[in-house]
Amino acid sequence: GLGDVYKRQGYTGIPGLIARMNTEDCRSYLDEIWPPEGLDEEMLMTAETFLNADLNISETANRLFISRNTLIYRLNRIQKETGIDLRKFNDASAFHAALMIRNRLDKNKK
């Protein structure tokens, strides 16, 4: 797959790009993407699991031990609260990058 190509050619993908961003640029990106009030833990876990399951509704529901309808309800709630529709590739990739940046900044605090 494409991941193997990146590894062979020495690319690190989006995590590598984020690692090279300065803190000011990271914060600026988060200000654009991340919801001001954040997401509660359940919504955050739902979003992360959905992204890690490659936007697959059935797989995400199975991993979270919830019904597909409950997952769809949560995804709709995330969209309503944030304006981000994780079922759309561009929204999902922007949010995934924001998660990685947030995690990087949180690690730097410790």
Short synopsis of the structure:
Helix content is 75%, strand content 0%.
What does this protein structure show overall?
The chain has 110 residues and is mainly alpha-helical. Helix content is 75%, strand content 0%. It has helices at residues 2-9, 13-20, 23-33, 41-52, 57-64, 68-82, 89-109. Helix 4 crosses helix 5 (57-64) and helix 5 packs across helix 6. The longest helix is centred in the C-terminal third of the chain and has 21 residues, at 89-109. The termini are far apart. The model has no long low-confidence stretch (mean pLDDT 88).
Which tags fit this structure?
110 residues, mainly alpha
Coarse shape: globular
Distance, first to last CA = 35 Å
Order of helices and strands: HHHHHHH
Provide the β-strand percentage band: under 5%
Biggest sheet architecture: none
Rg over alpha carbons: 15 Å
Number of helices: 7
User: Kindly state the mean pLDDT as a whole number?
Assistant: 88
Q: Helical percent range?
A: over 70%
Low-pLDDT residue intervals, each spanning 5 or more residues: none
Q: What class do helices, strands and sheet pairing give? A: mainly alpha
Please report the total strand number as a whole number.
0
